[in-house]
Amino acid sequence: MSQPDSTPPAASMSRRGFLRRGVVAATGVAAVAAALKPLLNAELELGDLTSLEKFLQQHYKELDKEEMAAVLERISREIEERYQIHPELTNVKPMDGVEFVYALNLSRCIGCRKCVHACVKENNQSRDPELQYIRVLEMPKGTIDIERGNHHYERPTVPDPDHFYMPIQCHQCANPPCVKVCPVEATWQETDGIVVIDYDWCIGCRYCEAACPYWARRFNFSQPKYASEQELKDDPEIIQKRLNPRMSYLSNRPRSVGVMEKCTYCLHRTRVGEMPACLEICPVGARKFGNVLDPASEVTQILRNKRIFVLKEDTGTLPRFFYYFDERRPQLRSGETDEIVQVTKMDAGGEA
Amino acid sequence: MRDYLTFLYRCFRISFVGGWRYHLWMLCLTIIALLGLNAYCKQLVDGLATTGMTDHVSWGLYIANFTFLVGMAAAAVMLVIPVYIYRNKDLHDLVIFGELLAVATIIMCLLFVTVDLGRPDRFSHLLRRFNFPLSMLTWDVIVLNGYLLLNLHITGYLIYCDYRRKEPNKTFFVIPFVFVAIVWAISIHTVTAFLYVGLGARPFWNSAIIAPRFLASAFSAGPAFNILTLQVIGRFTSYNIPRSALLLLRQIVLVALTINMFLLISELFTEFYAGKTHIASTRYLYFGLLGHNALVPWIWASIVLNSLALIILYLPVTRSLRLLNIACVFLIVGIWIEKGMGLIVPAFIPSPLGEIVEYTPTINEILVCLGIWAFGLLLYTIFVRVTIPVLSGRLTYDQPFEIATQD
After folding, report:
1. Residue ranges of the alpha helices (H) in B51-174?
2. Which of A145, A193, B274, B325 has the most CB atoms in a 10 Å sphere around its CB?
3. pLDDT tens-digit profile of B250-285?
4. Phi then psi dihedrals of residue A187, to 5 deg
5. Is this prediction's ipTM beyond 0.85?
6. pTM for this predicted structure
7. Please, what is the end-to-end C-alpha distance for chain B in angstroms?
8. Residue B150 CA to chain centroid, in angstroms?
9. How confident is the model at residue A8, as a pLDDT?
């Protein structure tokens, strides 16, 4: 093409050579333009590049009061434009002297999966595809090895007498591996123990998802959709009906494509004294939630008196999510004396 | 300054000059790279749902290729060590090609990480809030970019000195950087391995042998790739590649591959003999789990290819280059499977809650990968295209540009 042969330089810039170069350059430009064509898609949002305001938004922890108010207003406006609802968007802060823990009674759980769906509804997760924070495992009796659980059980009625049920969600670990690995500090632990994500800061590398031993984190592989095409056809206002307008910055406001999300113990509810949605819906009272720093709270009593365990204790994550079984204290057989419950020495051989 | 700009302009111009084979090669690479760009634009619009990744297998082909290429970037150091530490003469003039390959592969690595991000538009967040030293990913950002800069400096400086017909000031501007780069090259592997090894949630990765194996496999695949590229350079340009240099590289590949195979055996023995329950992922990789066995043929292909390469390399016959080349191809493909798909995907299967969801990359995802590979090769070709006339004294500041183009 531009290969100069034996002709002197002046001739190589002849009209023909110039034209040829022009054609090559034009083809190149056209090819690049064709490659970039998908970007012209009308539905495209180039994320934070659409406005300077979004691009320059600070990390959650660096926003002062006024800046936060401005951010909340902007997000509310966007939600209103996009979904035609009036959100009550707030930024609920943790309460002093509160550390939340969850306790789940495996003797009571019947595996109805009502918590799974109440959670989706409360927290405005995507419906198409549906994204869920809680996974209920159907476990064969005789093991607590979760690798033996069945995720996809379908039964006309539950519970099945040969199984027990084990719901798993974010354990809000005191030593969270997901927080440690985040390269941009988009996820952190709040003073009440809840691990949160700044959806406006996450870069979507999914390292936290790989780090979590409880499979508690979810990624938005596409823009969240609150109804399928068919559902929208059947009821054009379905999205407005479905969205929970009570939203907070760190929990259930609508997410965007390409960011992580997770259970936040419904912090927009629990930080103002209500119970999480999964607990409220539970028909058998298997779920207990509260402040572990309050000695009178139900969860504190459970942690004190029940035989509790945590999942994957060996990973050192120190979960704030405990499992327990109901138990009866052993009763002495009639006729036995109290002597039997006096502890005998471990090294009994020496006495005999 | 003006001279430097002229130099860059001449580099740009000469990359368009070449025979018909050169043009055809560049045209093909450009087309593939543009197809990849097009696929990536689709991904930008529709999100990572255009890939085969899911919440179960949340890293796939992108991170697999990234991991393999971090290893390839080691190629440079295996040329640098003999030359700068053992004062090997044969390789002396070839080091620069290894370093240029490192530049191209690191750029590919960075591209593979970027296309894996859900929100590349938020790239600036890395500069504004950097979770260092806690997150291994921030370490990786530092070591990869640092390695890129080191190699850009070393190669750029040497080439520019040749262009200016100046004796390079090695004591100040080359030697210290080269020694830093040697340590740095080892760090890019170690840090990348630690990225995975540090996750207690994934027993498949949570093993001390991953980092040493990383080094061993990189130090075999990297020089093997160099053996091939150097021959291509020797064949299609006027540049002389001494046979003894290739044979020295063969020796390096042989030792590294032997160590890699030994470490593989150590790993497999530990995993399987103890019979623990944590080896579900390893079992999935090698034998399949409950009827799911998508990776089984791949990993066995890898083992067979690596073993064949090892056997061929041990035969004295490989001093004839043809067999050596076959062994190198086997080995590169074998390591690509092992360090790519074989290391990343099985860690996610079964999921931490015991669910088995397999991973199949989509066409779009594969196109993005091919695009990045093509772009990387394009860069490397241009680097070599520019370097050779400079090194052979045909492209210098005091000669007209046309002399350089007479190949």
Report:
1. 61-72, 75-80, 95-116, 125-128, 136-163, 170-173
2. A193
3. 999 999 999 999 999 999 999 999 877 788 999 999
4. -135, 140
5. yes
6. 0.93
7. 28
8. 16
9. 46
Tokens of A237: 């206002």
Q: Which of A218, A250, A224 is nearest to A134 (CA)?
A: A218
Cβ under 8 Å to A: B residues 3-42: 13, 16-18, 23, 30-31, 34-35, 37-38, 41-42
Compute CA A304 distance to the chain's CA centroid, rounded to the nearest angstrom: 29
Residues of A within 8 A of B122 (CB-CB) are 47-48, 184, 201-204
Summarize pLDDT for A95-146 with one digit per residue, the tens. 999 999 999 999 999 999 999 999 999 999 999 999 999 999 999 998 888 9
Residue A268: count other Cβ atoms within 10 Å of its Cβ. 25
Q: Chain A partners of B202 at a C-beta cutoff of 8 Å?
A: 210
Give the whole-angstrom CA distance, residue B364 versus residue A346: 67
**Greatest CA separation for chain A:** 120
Which site among A23, A143, A170, A181 would you substitute to test the B interface, given the most B Cβ atoms closer than 10 Å to its Cβ? A181
Mean local confidence (pLDDT), B60-88: 89
Q: Taking CB atoms and an 8 Å cutoff, what residues of chain B touch A145?
A: 277, 354
| Nearest neighbour of A147 by CB, restricted to B23, B120, B354 | B354
Give the pair of three-digit tokens for residue B181: 């780069």
CB–CB contacts below 8 A, A to B: 192
From the list B123, B131, B405, the residue facing A4 with the nearest CB is B405
- Tokens 């190669």, residue? B155
Contacts of B133 (CB under 8 A, 6+ apart): B139
In angstroms, what separates the C-alpha of A208 from chain B's closest C-alpha? 10
| Domain limits, chain B | 2-400
Residue A149 sits at φ, ψ, to 5 deg, of -75, 155
Average pLDDT over residues A211-220: 97
For residue range B301-315, list pLDDT tens digits in order.
999 999 999 999 998
**Class assignment of domain A100-324?**
alpha beta
CATH number of B2-400: 1.20.1630.10
